[in-house]
Each structure stands twice: as C-alpha cells, then as structure tokens.
UniProtKB/TrEMBL annotation:
Lineage per the UniProt record: Bacteria, Pseudomonadati, Pseudomonadota, Alphaproteobacteria, Hyphomicrobiales
Gene Ontology molecular function, alphabetical: carboxy-lyase activity; hydrolase activity
Pfam families: Amidohydro_2
InterPro entries xrefs: ACMSD, Amidohydro-rel, Metal_Hydrolase
Name assigned to this protein: Amidohydrolase
Keyword Lyase found: yes
Alphabetized UniProt keyword annotations: Hydrolase, Lyase
Domain Amidohydrolase-related: 3-277
Length: 286
C-alpha cells in the first residue's frame, strides 16, 4: 500500500499573481501549476490513498483556497481522497470555519502553516484549536521548515515549538511536514521524544543531499524503526514518480564512498508507511 500524506488541492481561480511569480523558482527543476481535483486524481493513479488539503496562504504564496474545494474533490473521488481542513487563525471566523469543515464537510484532519500565516504554534489563538482537535480525535499536519514565500517569518517554520505543544496536548496527533527542513535534526529529536508526534518526507526528493542526510540522521536516532516517518509528495511541487525515485535512489550520489547508507528497510518502511493506522487514535475513522 502507498499513501500520499501530503497533496495540495486548489482551483485555477484560487491562484493569484503572487503564486505565478514565485512558484516557478520554488524548487530545482520544473513543476506543474495545476492542482484541481481531476488533475490530482490523474496524478495519484499509482497511490492507493491521498490526503488532500487546500491552502489559505494568500499573502505568503498567493493561494487563496478553501475547504469546500477539498470537500468537493473528496466527494468526486471518495475512494482515492481523504480531506483535511485548512486553517488561518488570523481570520475572525477561524473556529467557525474549522467546526464547519469537520462537522459539516466531514473532513478528517487539519493542515496549518505557521510560517505561511505568520502565526506561531505558541500563539494563544491556537489553544481552542488544539483543544477541539484533541477532543475530536483529529490529527494536525503542520508545515514545518522554511519556504520560498515572500511574506513568511522563517522562525515560525522551526520544529522546536512542536515540543512545547505536544507536551501540553499529549492526546493530539501532530505531524511535521517536510521533516522540518533545513532544521531536520530538531524535527527528528522532537518526533523521537513524543509518542503523539510524527513526521513526513514530502518535497524532499529534489534536494537529494539534504534528503540523504535527513534519513541517515533519522536512522541514527532510531525513529525509522518506530513508524514515525511517512511518505508524501507535496504535489504539485513534486510528482509521485519523482518522489518514489528520490527515496529509493537516495544512496546513488554517495556511491563509491564510505559514507553510511540509507538502508533498504528504511526506504521500504517510509514508502509503504500507512498514516491511516497511526494518525488517529484507534485508526482512521473514515
């Protein structure tokens, strides 16, 4: 089984000029800019399930999404997609939108980007969010790591704040996206410490030297043995095939050296990891 735990969905009219000016330089190599439901379904043909979410990152990267586009995609392709809600705590109606997304639209998790919304994980506005998610058995995926966004406070992308929140809310399942790059060591030690904290490797395949070091570090801290790391693409920023190839070929560029290898067990465990067994207490309720 292959589950893509990190897929972005948005319609063309939800992308702004800022998105089209910034995104082509956001990664090495070319990427597509479409991420509507039909595009996602075609792109995800080789995975069993995909966790999808819209982005409310209007002022940071120029995507002004909403939960309805996610819910419509799930309704159109229910066997393929699992929907998460987007959240922007700066909005006065953020809790109403969250409750609507979970209780009316029946989305199964939440995605939040502190660096994109300019709101720290330690901000008091997030306390009712954490309490609600913990009570409802809803996982929280967080963008952890830097970004290309023009209006994004980089310090909010560091993973260490997850340590504080995970201790305060031990029943809240938290997922650090992108292994907290470039602060991957912080991500790894936080995931190792807390039973309720996980991480995932989306959008790392196109930085192979960093990706290699991340996985070796994760092996050395033994979190690769504990169902802590999950696989994803961050589509449209990366495709399924390049994300699979990036993982399975991560040792290629150290061939002929005595550097440590990422083991086949590690690669297999990540590629065939199943968040549906771990991110909800008692397993995926869908």
């Amino acid at each position: 089984m292959i589950v893509d735990c990190h897929v972005n969905v948005f319609d063309a009219d939800q992308t702004l000029p800022l998105f089209h000016s910034l995104t082509p330089t956001s990664r090495p190599g070319a990427m597509g800019l479409a991420a509507d439901a039909d595009t996602l379904f075609a792109a995800m043909k080789d995975v069993d399930k995909a966790i999808i979410f819209s982005l409310r990152y209007k002022d940071a990267i120029g995507v002004d999404g909403d939960d309805e586009v996610t819910a419509r995609a799930v309704a159109k392709y229910p066997e393929k997609f699992i929907g998460f809600a987007a959240m922007d705590p700066r909005r006065p109606d953020y809790m109403d939108l969250l409750v609507h997304a979970i209780e009316d639209l029946h989305l199964k998790g939440v995605k939040f980007g502190p660096i994109y919304n300019g709101v720290s994980l330690l901000d008091p506005r997030l306390e009712p969010v954490y309490e609600y998610l913990q009570k409802k058995n809803i996982p929280l995926t967080m963008h952890m790591g830097t970004t290309f966004g023009a209006n994004a406070p980089i310090n909010y992308g560091r993973p260490l704040d997850v340590d504080t929140i995970a201790a305060r809310y031990p029943d809240l399942k938290m997922v650090m996206a992108h292994m907290g790059h470039p602060w991957y060591e912080e991500c790894i030690v936080v995931a190792r410490k807390h039973p309720n904290v996980y991480c995932e490797v989306s959008a790392l395949c196109y930085r192979p030297w960093q990706y290699y070091n991340i996985l070796v570090c994760a092996q050395e801290y033994l979190i690769t043995k504990r169902n802590k790391i999950f696989w994803g693409t961050d589509f449209p920023w990366a495709t399924v095939q390049e994300s699979i190839d990036g993982l399975l070929n991560v040792n290629d560029h150290i061939e002929g050296t005595r550097l440590p290898r990422v083991t086949q067990d590690t690669m297999d465990a990540i590629l065939h990891s199943n968040p549906l067994e771990h991110w909800w207490h008692g397993g995926y309720p869908g």
